[in-house]
Specification:
Number of domains of chain A: 2
CATH architecture of the largest domain in chain A: Sandwich
Oligomer: heterodimer
Number of strands of chain B: 27
Largest interface: A-B, 23 and 19 residues
Structural class of chain A: mainly beta
Distance between the termini of chain A: 44 Å
CATH topology of the largest domain in chain A: Immunoglobulin-like
Strand order of the largest sheet of chain A: 7-13-12-9-10
Helix content of chain B: 40-55%
CATH superfamily of one domain in chain B: EAL domain
Number of strands of chain A: 18
CATH architecture of one domain in chain B: Alpha-Beta Barrel
Strand content of chain A: over 45%
Largest sheet of chain B: 8 strands, mixed, barrel
CATH topology of one domain in chain B: TIM Barrel
CATH class of the largest domain in chain A: Mainly Beta
Largest sheet of chain A: 5 strands, mixed
Number of helices of chain B: 27
Strand content of chain B: 15-25%
Structural class of chain B: alpha+beta
Number of helices of chain A: 3
Helix content of chain A: under 10%
Radius of gyration of chain B: 69 Å
Shape of chain B: rod-shaped
């Protein structure tokens, strides 16, 4: 495993464009093994020093919202900086029972509808998987990071960051990423505009629905 | 009881039955075989169907189990407890027990995502659970603590739609709980579950009690290696089918279906017994029919056999024909034809045996038989008449035998037509007829024979020749003369003989005839016997050459020394022998004896001619020449040493035939002499033609030769005549020296008579001859000396 990990580092293509400026635009693109750009991949950049963060923009992050629309979590993946309060409004006319057993945040909002629930504070970094006790198919993720620079790739698989000069570590996350890709890290030194392309080592996991619900009616 | 296998009836029957049994055996075999196969395939189908049902049952249980635990796995409370398992395993286990109770399963276990036990109410599970396998659909069997369970595992996901598996929930049902009577009813078989050579559970009654280890072990031992086989278990025959329901090598779980074979094959058994009953009926029916059939052939055959037996004993009967069987019908017709043919032939034989073909009258046999019947009857007196046609020989000789036969036929016809009522007429042989006339003893003979004599009153006209025929009749009366058939025949014969002698037309038997006639008749009957037993002998009278006094030849003369009547003269029995025809045997015997004597003398150095007399009868015997030829060869005698003497009268009776036979004899080289020359009436013409070598002057001319000039002249004339014809002369009856000398003067070559010697017995002849020769020699010497 360790060897494969090393290989992945080598495989990262990095183009550093020298540019004398205080904030440099960093563009990161994620493409899969088939060279197809991947959207909706969580990408976050952690500074080497906390001071950078404090020097950085938006030290007081605002609240986030994980809505439930048409018996689905919306958004499917919500990335937040830690210490963010997240609202779980219910846009459906039926009740939901949102819960999480994830270590980063274990909670349960029993049978509610419409009413504005109390926002929950996410203080721990990590993955929080959300489910609804009365709608098994509902699945949502909150990914808590400890950096103000995070986001999800757009339809072209791109994400842009304005980063102050300095040293950073680029990480990616997605529930369907294979382990090797999940643990991807890339150190970058920002002194000019940087264009970074991350090639996934493996194909993503299939969506769970593919092998869910094997009720044995196909025997008949 | 023994069975006759050669009898047609039994053979048919046995073959029928045999054929039938073979046919039935084949049909039975094929039917039962097919039925058995069908039953077998039916039961096999049932087994596979039952296996499918059984599988389905277990699958359903498995599915139910899955649904239950699947629902439980989504239970939020359980998820909470699972999430908190490390801190509070007791609550988790308690909740799981609760769920287990709800589902009525037999154990439950919660495993980590890497399949290790987190919480469980079943012990001894340190190992990793085969969750991959037991989470699959279908029948999953796990043996835990030696108990087989039907198990299912489902993953527990804290977030249901997440791919992340937090834990595994496993539950199981003891399989033996599923093996029960309802299942048995559905499957139609007893079900036995065997785990590693132990009966786990069974619906089969003998194994149902789990405490009965012995039975279970016996059953285990009875399990065959094949999937499908019929076995015997404790006296019961079972159809058995087995299959393995888990493929775990160390723990083999086998399901066994069994069914009482009688139930499995119940149709087969019924069929077999019904078939056997049907076959028995068919066999009985067939035996009955074939028996009937064979009887229809055999009964007519038996009837025919009976008829054939009857035919054997001469019982002829109408044969009825049975047209039902062609062959039998043909046989009966053949038998019928045979019977007819036999009857006809019998008739013909009877005709031949008892009737004369010539005259169509009964023959001698029939005559004797009829007479015997009358005698046996003893109520009827009758006369036996023997009739002889006079001079019939002449008719034959002059007009031919064929003509003679026609005469006999005409006489027979006339006799048959004219005889009185009740008369019986037969034709014996030759020219002899015989009659039986019923009559009183007192009847006059002339009245008796009148109808028979009348038959000959008118002439017979045959082939345009009118012929006067007369007959002689001898009559004997029953019971006056004799009460026996042969006696009557003999007496009638004697009477006939007397009648012939007297030249009368009929003669009744008279006792006076008897002695003389009987003696003569007896003599005749004894003559041939005497020839054989040596009572007849040849005597030898020498003939000398007058010129030399030497014995040149000897005449052989027959003498009969009768043991009762003493010496019988040839003059007495020779004519009788000629009459009866016995003379032929006598002549032949004499020739043979003469040749023997010749050889006897030849041995002693004498070559002497042997002269044998032959009679007129011999000259009618065409057999004579052949006999003489054979006899000469047999005794190895030169023909000219034999001389046959024949009388003039013998030649005269049938000159043509006699001369022909004499010529043949002469050609053979035999010497011929005319005996008693001068007493007959030979013509010169006849004498000239007769092929003889010698004339023998009758002794009547020689006896008185000295005293009678006439005799001397006759002898002289005959001698001259003979010499002129080239014949030599013998004189017999030379009784003195003077006669001999005179004969010598006359020129007679040979002399014979008492002066030389009388006829000498065989035993004495050779001594006499030796003596004579001796004396003769001395005399010659003397005379020579005298000269």
């Amino acid at each position: 495993m360790a060897r494969t990990f090393n290989c992945s580092i080598v495989s990262v293509l990095m183009i550093i464009i020298p540019f004398a400026s205080q904030a440099k635009v960093t563009n990161i693109q994620i493409i899969d093994v088939d060279k197809v750009p991947l959207s909706n991949i969580v990408v976050y950049v952690e500074p080497e020093t906390k001071s950078a963060v404090t020097k950085g923009i938006l030290p007081n992050s605002s609240d986030a919202t994980m809505d439930q629309v048409n018996r689905q979590f919306d958004p499917h993946i919500l990335v937040v900086n830690k210490h963010t309060k997240i609202n779980f409004p219910n846009s459906d006319k039926i009740k939901h029972h949102v819960y999480s057993f994830s270590p980063a945040k274990t909670f349960e909002i029993k049978l509610y509808s419409d009413e504005q629930s109390t926002p929950l504070l996410f203080n721990d970094v990590g993955e929080v998987t959300l489910g609804c006790n009365i709608h098994d198919w509902m699945l949502g993720y909150v990914y808590v990071v400890d950096t103000p620079w995070f986001g999800k790739t757009d339809l072209e698989g791109n994400i842009k960051f304005d980063l102050p000069d300095g040293k950073y570590t680029v990480k990616i996350w997605h529930p369907l990423l294979q382990g090797i890709d999940q643990s991807f890290t890339q150190k970058v030194d920002i002194s000019s505009d940087v264009k970074l392309t991350v090639n996934l080592k493996e194909a993503m996991k299939p969506k769970y629905e593919a092998y869910e619900d094997d009720d044995e009616l196909d025997d008949y | 009881m023994t069975i006759n296998f050669k009898s047609l009836q039994n053979r048919i029957l046995i073959r029928f039955i045999l054929l039938l049994m073979i046919t039935i055996a084949i049909i039975l075999f094929v039917t039962l075989e097919q039925t058995y196969r069908h039953s077998e395939s039916q039961i096999n189908k049932q087994f596979t169907t039952a296996q499918a049902v059984f599988d389905d049952k277990l699958t359903n249980h498995s599915r139910t189990l899955y649904r239950g635990i699947s629902a439980i796995s989504k239970d939020f409370t359980l998820k909470k407890l699972v999430n908190n398992a490390k801190n509070d395993p007791r609550s988790l286990l308690s909740a799981m027990n609760n769920q287990q109770r709800r589902l009525k399963t037999d154990f439950s276990a919660l495993l980590s995502s890497d399949a290790k036990t987190i919480a469980s109410n079943i012990s001894s599970l340190s190992k990793v659970w085969p969750v991959e396998k037991i989470s699959q659909a279908g029948i999953n069997v796990l043996v835990l603590n030696d108990i087989p369970y039907l198990v299912r595992a489902v993953p527990i996901r804290l977030i249901e739609s997440s791919s992340k598996i937090e834990a595994w929930l496993v539950m199981g049902i003891q399989i033996k709980k599923l093996i029960n009577d309802p299942l048995k009813k559905i499957l139609g078989f007893d079900v036995t579950l065997v785990l590693n050579n132990n009966v786990e559970v069974s619906t089969y009654p003998p194994l149902a009690n789990q405490n009965n280890k012995l039975e279970s072990q016996a059953f285990i031992n009875a399990i065959p290696s094949k999937d499908r086989e019929n076995i015997n278990f404790q006296g019961e025959s079972l159809a058995l089918y087995q299959f393995v329901i888990n493929d775990n090598e160390s723990e083999k779980l086998t399901t066994i279906f069994t069914l009482d074979k009688d139930l499995a094959f119940i149709n087969f058994t019924n069929l077999a017994s019904q078939l056997i009953i049907a076959i028995c009926v068919i066999i009985l029916l067939t035996v009955f029919l074939s028996f009937r059939f064979s009887i229809s052939i055999v009964r007519p055959l038996k009837n025919l056999v009976d008829i054939a037996h009857k035919i054997q004993y001469g019982n002829y009967a109408e044969i009825t024909h049975d047209a039902r069987v062609t062959e039998v019908n043909k046989l009966s017709f053949a038998l019928s034809n045979m019977q007819n043919a036999i009857q006809q032939r019998e008739k013909a034989n009877h005709q031949l045996a008892f009737y004369s073909a010539l005259t169509e009258l009964p023959n001698r046999n029939h005559f004797i038989r009829t007479m015997n019947e009358l005698i046996e009857d003893a109520t009827q007196q009758f006369a036996v008449i023997l009739m002889d046609i006079d001079r019939f020989k002449e008719i034959n000789d002059t007009l031919g035998h064929e003509y003679g036969d026609q005469v006999l036929q005409a006489i027979a016809k006339r006799l048959d037509e004219n005889l009185v009522q009740g008369a019986y007429i037969a034709y014996l042989e030759g020219d002899e007829f015989a009659m039986l006339l019923p009559c009183q003893a007192s009847v006059k003979t002339e009245l008796l024979v009148a109808p028979a004599i009348k038959v000959f009153d008118q002439f017979f006209e045959i082939n345009s020749i009118q012929l006067d025929v007369s007959a002689s009749m001898g009559i004997a009366m029953y019971p006056k003369d004799s009460i026996k058939a042969d006696g009557l025949m003999q007496f009638a014969d004697i009477a006939l003989y007397i009648c012939k002698d007297k030249h009368s037309s009929y003669e009744s038997y008279n006792e006076e005839f008897n002695t003389h006639s009987l003696l003569r008749l007896n003599l005749m009957s004894e003559l041939r016997g005497s020839l054989e037993n040596g009572n007849l002998q040849l005597y030898y009278q020498p003939q000398i050459e007058i010129a030399t006094n030497k014995v040149k030849s000897i005449e052989c003369l027959v003498r009969w020394q009768h043991p009762e009547h003493g010496f019988i003269f040839p003059d007495d029995f020779i004519p009788l022998a000629e009459q009866t025809g016995n003379i032929r045997y006598l002549t032949k015997w004499a020739i043979e004896e003469a040749l023997k004597q010749h050889n006897k003398l030849k041995v002693n150095g004498f070559h002497i001619h042997m002269a044998v007399n032959i009679s007129a009868i011999d000259l009618t015997d065409s057999n004579l020449v052949e006999f003489v030829e054979i006899a000469l060869k047999k005794h190895n005698v030169v023909p000219n040493m034999l001389m046959l003497e024949v009388t003039e009268s013998a030649i005269m009776s049938d000159p043509q035939k006699a001369i022909a036979i004499l010529a043949e004899l002469k050609n053979m080289g035999i010497q011929l002499s005319i005996d008693d020359f001068g007493t007959g009436y030979s013509s010169m013409e006849q004498l000239k033609r007769t092929p003889v070598n010698e004339l023998k002057i009758d002794k009547s001319f020689v006896l008185e030769l000295i005293s009678s000039d006439e005799d001397a002249i006759i002898v002289k004339s005959i001698t001259d005549l003979a010499h002129n014809l080239g014949l030599s002369v013998v004189a017999e009856g030379v009784e003195n020296k003077e006669s001999l000398e005179m004969l010598h003067k006359i020129g007679v070559e040979t002399a014979q008579g008492y002066f030389i010697s009388k006829a000498i017995h065989d035993d004495d002849f050779l001594p006499w001859l030796l003596n004579y020769e001796n004396e003769n020699e001395n005399e010659n010497e003397n005379s020579e000396q005298t000269i």
